[in-house]
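ESCALATION

Customer reports they have been waiting on this structure for their group meeting. Please prioritize. Original submission:
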Amino acid sequence: MIGFANNLVYLVGTERCNEALEKLDKKYDIVVNIQGDEPLIEPEIIDGIVKALQAAPDAVFSTAVTSLKPEDAFDPNQVKCVVDSRGYAIYFSRGLIPYNKSGRVNPQFPYMLHLEIQSYDSKFLKMYPQLQPTPLQLEEDLEQLKVLENGYKMKVW
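Update from on-call: job pushed to the front of the queue and completed.
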């Protein structure tokens, strides 16, 4: 699915986003990827990740997170994210992160759930397919880890 607005293009899937971008006869600064898991994503979230990427010149990618519900803590289909103090992603996992030694959810800790939406700098998106798969990406089956393992910054909104 492709949609256009304000010099942004909205597509699905990182590799497919790049393929579609190459076929378009127009230059875009930012590409937004809304995955099928999030068909009713709020427009404010779309705007938020775009603005987050625009405000972080050292980032090539941005994404959104929200609070993780305790019942989703151990669901591998719910991707978790750890964010540093400056709002950049440190790690994504299908397991609970951080994982404390008690093996239980700490109700006092602000665990984060990754929302299935990303925005990319279009120059980086063109480079993405040339990046080799990485061990963490393959182990977790999460393409965000390919970005982080290759040393790129990802801003979180």
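Sent to customer with the following note: The chain has one domain: 3-156.
Escalation resolved.
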